[in-house]
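Input chain follows. Return C-alpha cells only.
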Amino acid sequence: MCGICGIVGFDDRTLLKRMCNVIYHRGPDDSGIFLDRNICMGAQSLFLTRKIRQPIRNEDGSLWLVCDGTIYNFQELVRYLESRGHEFYTNSDIEVIVHLYEEFGNFCVKKIRGTFAFGIWDGTKKKLFLARDRIGVKPLYYVIIGNNFLFASEIKSLLQYDEIKREIDTRALHYFLTFRYVPGPRTMFKGIKKLQPGHNLTYKKGKVKISKYWDLSYSPIKESEKYYIERLQELIKESIEIRLRNVPIAVYLSGGLDSSYVTGVISNLVDEPIKTFSVGFGVERFDELKYAKVIANHFNTDHHEFIIESDAARLLPEIIWRFDEPIADPAAIPTYFISKEAKNHAKIIFGAEGGDELFGGYEHWKIMLMSRKYLKFVPKEAIFWFANKLPKFLLDKFFMYSSVLGEEGMRRFSDYLLSMSNIGKSYLSIISIFDEKERNELCINKTGFKIAKNLNDNYFKNIDSNNLLNHLSLFEIKTQMPDDLAMKWDKMLMTFSLEPELPLLDHKLMEFSATIPSSFKIRGLTEKYIFRKLMSSFIPKEIVKRKKQRFFVPIDSWIEKDLWDIICQIFSEQNVRSRGYFKWNYISHIFQNFGKSKLYYSRQLWNLLTFELWHRIFIDSDNLRRPQSILKRALL
C-alpha cells in the first residue's frame, strides 16, 4: 500500500527524495515528505479505496506518521478515539495510529489489528518510534551510521545514503546457504537490520531500544472436533471479510487446500464471480492446474491460467533487484508472473500463505513426528541398515521426493535418521540447501557458528512428542514466514503496485490455531486433518482427499535446458577463485555429479546463482539508481 523511509540525525531533502524515488513502485499515486530540524520522513502512497496523503499528523502537529499497511479495525478505533476527544482530519484508516500513540504511547500497537510497518516522529520527546506487524507481512529495515538513523520499506532505499558501506555479513551468508534466505534481524548487508515481526523500536538521543509487543504462545486446549471446525470457519471468514474492500480483487489459486478454501469463502461473500489466477510449468510432476480448474469451475470464478517456460529463469536478476536480498525461493517467479498478469484486473491479490504453518501441512514435520514416534527405541545400527536397505518406492511413501533428489537425497535421509536425538541437526538435515558438512567444503570463510546449536538453544528446548509440532511451527512462523514467504508476496506484488492480502496470517486466527492440539493437525499419515474436516462439506472431495503435493518449480529442467552454459561461465574456476567466497573444489563437485542428483544440486546451484547475481547488482555496481542497466549487465 505504501513505501516509507526516514532519517534522524540530519535533514536532507535531496537524499530523502532519492530514497522515495527508488521505492516509487510501492506507491505511485502520491509522494509526500515531512522535514524538521534533524528529522525527515517520506512516503510513496498507493490509493486503493481512498486518497491518503502522507505523512499524517495529529491535531497540533507534534506527531508525524508514515505507514505502509492497512488497519482492519480502524472504524471501532475511530469511535473510541473520538469518544476520547480526538479529532480526525482524514478518512484514512492509518490516521488512528497517531491518535492511539497519543493515548497509549508505545503500547498503541497492541490495539491494532492489521498488517503494517510504520514510523512516528514524536516532536515533543524528540523520539522516533517504529513498529512492524505481528507476523511480518510488511517489511521494515533500519541502519545506524554514526549518530544518524535511517529506516525504509526496502534496503535499496537505505542504500541511497552513500555513507552506508555495502559489505557482506559472513554469518548471514551461512544462514542463506542453509535456508535460502537470511532470518531476521540480520540481512545480507553488514549493519542493515530488519525490525522483527511483533517488535517495536525507539530511537532517541542516539540510543536504540527494541521491545517485543506480541508473541505466539502454544497452549493446546481439550475441545471437541466440532468446536475446532466451527471456530476455525468463523475466524477464517471474519479474517477474509475485514480484508475485502470495494476495489477489484483476485485470488492466487494454486489448486491446493488453502487457496481452494480461500477462493470458496471469498466467492460466497461477493456478488460477482471473482478472478482467479493459476500457473503451470508444462511439467506433469509439478502441475496442479487441473486441480485449480476443479475449484474455479466449482465456484464459477473468472479463471486465468498460463504456463511458465524455462526461459522465465532469466528474470532472476529482476526478481533479485526487487528483493534487495538474495532470497533463493524459485516460487518468486510464478508469484511475479501472476502479479504481472493480475495488475490489469485487480488492485488486491489474496493468497493463502500460512495454512501449512497453522494446520500442520509440511511433509518434513510429518517425517519428524513419525520417526520420533516409531524409531526412538531402535538402535542406531538398525536405523543405519534401515536407511540403506529400504527400497526407493517405499522410502518415497515415507519421505516424499527422496528418490527424486537422487543419491544425495538418500544420504540426507540417512543423516536425518542417525541424528534424530538432536532436533536442530535432524531438522537441518531435511530442509537445508547446504548442510553443515557441505558448507564447510564450500565456504572459504568459516564462522565457527553452529546453526543447529542455535536452533536448539533458541527454538527447540524442552521438546517431547506432544509439543514437537508446536516448536517446528513456531520456528517457521518466526523465520521462513516473514523472511521468505511473506517477503515474496510483498516484494513481487508491490513491483506492480498491487496490495497483497494474506487472511490466514491474521493474528487472531494464528492465536486460535495455537490452542489446537497437534493430534488435530497431523493424524497418522494425514496432514492438515482438522482443516480437511472443515473443508469436507464445502470443497469438492477430490481436492479435500488428494495427497498433498508440494509446490515445486522445475528449476532442475530450467538449469539443464536454459541456464547451464550461463552457470558454467559465471562459476568458472577463475571467477570462483577471484570472487573469494567459495572453494572451487566443491563447485566442481556439483558440476561433475549433477546428473546423479539433478534436483538436489539444482537447489544448490540456484542458491549460488542467486547470491552471485545479487552480489553483482548490489555490491559490485556503483549505481543503484538505474536498475535496468544493472540487470542487463548481471548476466554478461
